[in-house]
Each structure stands twice: as structure tokens, then as C-alpha cells.
Amino acid sequence: MKRRVSKVLVGIDGSSHSFRAAEYAMEISKKYMAKLFAVTVTYIPTKSRVSQQEVIEVGAGLSEMDKAEKWFESFTQRAKQNGIDLKTELVNSQRPVDYVILEYAEKENIDLIVIGTRGRTGLSKIMLGSVASGIVTYSHSPILVVK
Description:
CATH architecture: 3-Layer(aba) Sandwich
CATH superfamily: HUPs
Shape: globular
């Protein structure tokens, strides 16, 4: 059975693994002339109190986010130069990140999900560490996990 890949989704969280996954997703989109969806999910905890350690870890991640933003601008430009139809989306949610990505994939009828093996460290690692596992376990679409 031959399946046509016309829509590719990549989850980007600012980690090096997600950047590598995005590079793979771009190459696949270029090869198959597929639309590329780059989704970043920001998990917003429901608890009202945040520990001092969590504040420190989030603050330390801000410079990393600046780097990620610059990378993302470059990624968007390269997609444009390569004729790739790219849709970017930032989703803020109180639901688990893997759930949000899977819901997005179903809503958009995604043919292939590309995801990195690990997320960022610190506070984000707590929230994102099991994202790839959750997506692999529950997805109805094929998955490419990039190390």
C-alpha cells in the first residue's frame, strides 16, 4: 500500500532534538511537496503557586528562547526559499503537550508527525519529557522520531 504524504507536522519546543526533527520534516516536505505544519505547544500549569526553583529555571530558559526564535526565523525563510508551504502555530494549553499535538494532527488530517526524542531541560523537561512517547503510543498517523 502506497500512501501519499501531503501534510507533515513537526513539534518544535526550542530543543536541539526538535530542531533536528524540523530539518527532517522540511526535507520530507520538500521531497513530497507536502504542506508543513510547525507547532509549538506551551504548557500552562493549572496550579496557582510556582516554586522559586521553577521561576529560576524558566528565567534561565529565556535566553534559549531568544536563540530558538532566531533559529525559527531562519527555518521559515528556508522553507520559503525551497517553495515549502509552511504553517506555524503557537498553542497555549493546560492539557498535556502530546494530547494537544495529537488533537492538532487529527484536526488537520496530518499524514506524518515528526518529533524529537527529548524536549528541553529543567522545568520544561518535566512537562515535555514524555511527549514523544505519548505521541508514538496514541497517534493514528505514522511517526518519525528523530534523535
